[in-house]
Design brief:
140 residues, mainly alpha, Diphtheria Toxin Repressor, domain 2, two-stranded antiparallel sheet, 74% helix, elongated, protein dimerization activity
Length: 140
């Protein structure tokens, strides 16, 4: 299993490749706001763990294992953002909150959150009921 730090890199690498078709060390460093030397060290670790193949000066490619994990990590992040938005968390806080919790939740908890999001999406009146409860609690 990748560490939380490895997960952050795999998630971002997956997104960059999905968006641009490639992920360079400089792109990853910019996206994660870290030094390129830190990216190089992590990429070498990810290569050793067979999440990607890295060739110095030539770039990197996710292995099937890396793609599978990366896709799942992006899904987890997007699901948690959607859940936070759904329950009324301020948009300015969502990214920071998701970053703070995503590595600490089990995949079972993520699946149950997915069930809850689906439950609210299937019937808009359910989400309206939640909003009404929140309004009552915010304005006693």
């Amino acid at each position: 299993m990748p560490t939380p730090s490895m997960e952050d890199y795999l998630e971002r690498i997956y997104q960059l490749i999905d968006e641009k078709g490639y992920a360079r060390v400089s792109d990853i460093a910019g996206a994660l706001e870290v030094h390129p030397s830190s990216v190089t060290k992590m990429v070498q670790k990810l290569d050793a763990e067979e999440y990607l193949i890295y060739e110095k000066y030539r770039g990197l490619v996710l292995t099937s294992k890396g793609k599978k994990i990366g896709k799942r990590l992006v899904f987890r992040h997007e699901l948690l953002e959607e859940f936070m938005r759904m329950i009324g968390v301020d948009d300015k806080r969502i990214y920071k909150d998701v970053e703070g919790i995503e590595h600490h939740l089990s995949w079972e908890a993520i699946d149950r959150i997915g069930d809850l999001v689906q439950y609210f999406e299937e019937d808009s009146s359910r989400l309206n009921d939640l909003r009404n409860v929140q309004q009552k609690n915010d304005n006693p």
